[in-house]
Design brief:
Elements: H1 7-13, H2 15-28, H3 35-48, E1 52-56, H4 59-72, E2 81-85, H5 90-98, E3 102-106, H6 120-123, E4 128-134, H7 144-153, E5 156-160, E6 168-169, E7 172-173, E8 180-184, E9 198-202, H8 205-214, H9 236-247, H10 249-266, E10 272-273, E11 281-282, E12 288-292, H11 295-304, H12 324-329, E13 332-333, H13 340-348, E14 349-352, H14 360-371
Parallel strand pairs: 2-3, 2-4, 3-13, 4-5, 5-8
Antiparallel strand pairs: 1-9, 6-7, 6-11, 8-9, 10-12, 12-14
Helix pairs in contact: 2-9, 3-9, 4-5, 4-8, 10-14
Bound molecules: pyridoxal-5'-phosphate (PLP).
Pyridoxal-5'-phosphate is lined by residues 58-60, 88-89, 91-92, 134, 160, 162-163, 184, 186, 196, 198.
């Protein structure tokens, strides 16, 4: 059986270092808001190329705190609109609607699966305040056109970098390309903790201070509460583990890139579409998505060959039960002509096994099985 991603082997690779990091925290007697957090935040900010990194409980909170901070700092009000790709993982959209902001869904491109910078203009209104790009599948969603669109209309540019640790655009890491970025360290992500964890990066000291306070009950000074915050902190144990994993992140991403190159070179089945490669981008290949009209048959065929695949994602956010009322109320906004490309991606997408510990032999087996698809 070829697993989609074996977390046991990913952790096992660094087990000795992880055990000693955990032991260090256990023995220290200090479990929250301590030296491991401070060090991880500094090391992660350096890695991303941002002035500040602030740890928090998970990636969803990181997204929520960014938007809430811009409200607290007077940039956004209830009902303001944020443009967001319709094919993202639902967390990106939950963070917008949870903040009483309107999520305005825009279509991705079929060839890159990333937000389509050609359709932003049509979604713009007097209440548009920001664009939230999502570096989905580990691929960079940033374009110069998006940046100049934001600049021309006075919009903030945010990045959901949950899937793209290690992705580089024109020499800069994703997570450093906009005003603020949210990062998830969910165990399966490129930089994964052994539990939940997240972070916000930004160059803006006021945003950094505000998100830090929001995740600590709204308090920057003990017993003094400036905001009605919540408890959303990064554990010292997770910070210590992330420091170990961060040291190996580039090597892990390098292996993912080698696996992706093998897929690009080997897959040649008619009816299977691979996303195009973009110049100036080092894709971090969190996932390796392919599109296939007979996706469910292909998945069953691969399963019969002992290959586990996943679908990212089977049901788009605007088709989820939780958002039907919001669509009627107008707090989740769809384009006039619907979202045919998003729906097509959700019906055709299949993610092949990829990760830092998959072997060349396993990758070759996957390629041969995919290329067999025409015979099924
Ligand atoms: C994983 C993920 C999140 C949420 O992160 P959690 O740490 O699981 O809360 C947000 N956005 C995207 C695109 C993700 O893939």
């Amino acid at each position: 059986m070829i697993e989609f991603l074996s977390l046991k082997s990913v952790t096992g690779k660094y087990a000795d270092e992880i055990h000693s990091a955990v032991r260090r925290v256990v023995d220290s007697g200090w479990y929250l808001q301590g030296a491991e957090n401070d060090e991880f935040e500094r090391e992660y900010a350096d890695y991303i190329g941002a002035k500040h990194a602030v740890g928090c409980a998970n990636g969803l909170d990181a997204l929520i705190w960014i938007l809430r901070a811009y409200k607290e700092l007077g940039h956004f009000k209830d009902g303001d609109e944020i443009l967001v790709p319709a094919n993202t993982y639902i967390a990106t959209i939950l963070a917008i609607t949870e903040n009483n902001l309107k999520a305005v869904l825009v279509e991705p491109r079929l060839d890159t699966l990333e937000i389509d910078d050609e359709v932003l203009e049509a979604a713009l209104t007097a209440r548009t305040k920001a664009v939230m790009i999502v570096h989905l599948y580990g691929r960079c969603a940033y374009t110069e056109k998006i940046a100049s669109f934001c600049k021309a209309h006075g919009l903030k540019l945010f990045e959901d970098n949950a899937q793209a640790h290690g992705c580089i655009w024109n020499g800069r890491k994703t997570g450093s390309l906009g005003d603020a970025a949210a990062h998830s360290f969910y165990p399966g992500k490129n930089l994964g903790a052994l539990g939940d964890a997240g972070a916000i990066t930004t160059d803006d000291p006021d945003v950094a201070a505000c998100v830090r306070s929001l995740g600590n009950y709204g308090s920057a000074k003990k017993y003094v509460f400036q905001y009605c915050g919540r408890n959303s902190r990064l554990d010292e144990i997770q910070a210590a583990i992330l420091r170990v994993k961060l040291r190996h992140l580039d090597a892990d991403v390098g292996r993912r890139q080698d696996v992706a190159e093998m897929y690009y070179a080997g897959i040649e089945a008619d009816g299977v579409r691979l996303p195009i490669k973009m110049a100036r981008e080092a894709n971090a290949y969190h996932l390796f998505p392919i599109l296939c009209e007979r996706r469910d048959e292909l998945q069953a065929h691969l399963k019969a060959c002992g290959i586990q695949t996943l679908i990212h994602y089977p049901i788009p956010p605007h088709r989820q039960e939780c958002y039907q009322q919001a669509i009627k109320d107008g707090s989740l906004v769809l384009p006039k002509h619907g979202l045919p490309i998003t729906e097509r991606i959700h019906s055709e997408e299949l993610s092949l096994p990829i990760g830092p510990t998959i072997s060349d032999e396993e990758v070759k087996t996957v390629i041969a099985a995919v290329n067999d698809y025409e015979t099924i």
